[in-house]
From TrEMBL:
The keyword Flavoprotein does not apply. SUPFAM superfamilies: S-adenosyl-L-methionine-dependent methyltransferases (SSF53335). This is Methyltransferase type 11 domain-containing protein. Keywords: Transferase. GO terms for molecular function: S-adenosylmethionine-dependent methyltransferase activity. The keyword Lipoprotein does not apply. Residues 64-161 form the Methyltransferase type domain. It comes from the Bacteria. It comes from Amycolatopsis albispora.
Amino acid sequence: MSISEEIGKHYDERSPIGDELRDGQIHMWYWFDRDDDATLPEAVHRMSRKVTDTLGLRPGEKLLDAGCGPGETAVYLAGEFGVEVTGITLSAYEIAQGGKRAEAAGVAGRTRFEYGDFTALSYADNSFDAVLALESLQNAPDLATVLGEFFRVLRPGGRLTFSDFSLESDRDPARVAKFVETLKLGALPTLPEWLDLTRAAGFAVEEYTQCGPRAFGMKTKYLETAMRSRDEITAKFGEAAVGEFSRNHLGFFAPRKDQIGYVIVSARKPG
Ligand SMILES: C[S@@+](CC[C@H](N)C(=O)[O-])C[C@H]1O[C@@H](n2cnc3c(N)ncnc32)[C@H](O)[C@@H]1O
């Protein structure tokens, strides 16, 4: 099985429960502190807004959502900003979900969900105004190749935003190794390494942040809120599937809270 097939299978298997729990978004949450009473879907939507606001989208622009998951982010952006979104993923489940969500939200005319591998994009040079990679670069086998592809398909002056995990402390490498294996990460760069990779691909970095304490650092908050949906999720997917999903948390939450950061990087292809 190729790496792309393996990643596609990983999301075909994992996305359905994640989709249900987090309202169509397979990414991290953002809670300000333990007293913040946002629900899990609200906290996940908050992260979507925080990341995508940095793109500065305008009506009619063409956006590539590279690694689009089950489509909620693309649907939100098409509705909120009037952009035309092409969502690509390696997962057949996610492509189907994206289409259904867009229909239900009335934005099917402005969204397209298709199979696509961001290590070798099928689009012409300069064909997008903006590229979003919301927690998808983490699965890239070679970050320089993928960032090079994003650079190629963006028009001069076009914007890239990505968000992903960063390594904040390697004092306990065995814990980090479990995290990397569970999530099928291709790499876990530090924030300075993320910035270097972005610049090496030709981009000018314009904004970045590291909000790990409000994302990975809120693991207890995630577990509490996710547990509230356990009965509902079990009724829908069955005890065995929920058991398997829960076991993955052991690897996901193996690192200490301060070991894993969360970076948001926004950059521009020089015009
Ligand atoms: C953690 S999920 C994030 C999904 C979505 N961005 C979200 O926030 O809900 C990672 C996504 O990246 C996609 N992905 C991983 N490797 C990819 C590749 N080589 N080409 C295209 N998509 C890829 C997966 O299929 C999945 O949709």
